[in-house]
């Protein structure tokens, strides 16, 4: 079963909006704001060879966002899939980046064709990125740096508890209750004395 983002990408491609779908896919994988992506030049995107935990060199796409070109005016590098980096760099180099309106319109059309309701906008993809980073076990300070959040309160607003999170809670509580052995008594509720 495809996730919402995969359905939207598929519908965008089927509608002939392959470049716009590529932009949306990059936003999903990086958490960039739409404007941050659309402002990129080819030289802002590179492929680095990075050693993983076993010493193997792995290609990593990197988008550099210079100081003054982000919402909080702080520079940052964001790593993502090397093939996606090559593809978006080629689109930018060819001068084929869609306008803000074209990107938004093609996204909205795919959301509508998918039958999704609610306020699903391109900026929602940043929420998706933050949530996926958390679920992957990435520390909050690193998540904040990757998506360009300077305040924890703003960042936490992007990370909503979903049904998958709730299922994990149910499973963990059931597992914990099963390890406790025979059922224990219900915890007695302590009544406080009323102050007269």
What does this structure look like?
There is one protein chain. By secondary structure, this protein is mainly α. Helices cover 51% and strands 11% of the residues. The protein contains nine helices and three strands, in the order αααβββαααααα. The protein has a three-stranded antiparallel β-sheet. A hairpin with a 5-residue loop joins strand 1 and strand 2. Helix 2 packs across helix 5 (100-114) and helix 6 packs antiparallel against helix 7. It is globular.
Question: Main traits of this protein?
Answer:
single chain, 196 residues, mainly alpha, three-stranded antiparallel sheet, 9 helices, 3 strands
Strand order of the largest sheet: 1-2-3
Main sheet makeup: 3 strands, antiparallel
Proportion of residues in helical segments: 40-55%
Unreliable stretches covering 5 or more consecutive residues: none
**Gyration radius, to the nearest Å?**
22 Å
Tell me what portion of residues adopts beta-strand conformation: 5-15%
- Cα(first) to Cα(last) distance is 61 Å
Q: Structural class of the helices, strands and pairings?
A: mainly alpha
Mean pLDDT across all amino acids: 83
């Amino acid at each position: 079963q495809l996730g919402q983002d995969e359905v939207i990408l598929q519908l965008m491609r089927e509608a002939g909006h392959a470049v716009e779908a590529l932009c949306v896919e990059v936003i999903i994988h990086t958490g960039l704001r739409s404007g941050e992506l659309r402002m990129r030049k080819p030289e802002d995107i590179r492929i680095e060879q990075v050693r993983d935990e076993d010493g193997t060199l792995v290609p990593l796409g990197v988008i550099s966002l210079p100081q003054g070109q982000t919402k909080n005016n702080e520079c940052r590098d964001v790593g993502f899939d090397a093939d996606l980096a090559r593809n978006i760099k080629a689109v930018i180099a060819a001068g084929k980046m869609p306008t803000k309106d074209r990107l938004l319109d093609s996204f909205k059309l795919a959301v509508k064709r998918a039958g999704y309701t609610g306020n699903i906008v391109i900026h929602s993809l940043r929420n998706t990125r933050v949530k996926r980073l958390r679920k992957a076990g990435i520390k909050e300070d690193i998540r904040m740096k990757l998506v360009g959040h300077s305040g924890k309160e703003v960042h936490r607003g992007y990370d909503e508890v979903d049904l998958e999170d709730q299922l994990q809670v149910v499973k963990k509580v059931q597992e914990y209750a099963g390890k406790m052995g025979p059922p224990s008594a219900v915890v007695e509720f302590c009544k406080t004395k009323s102050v007269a």
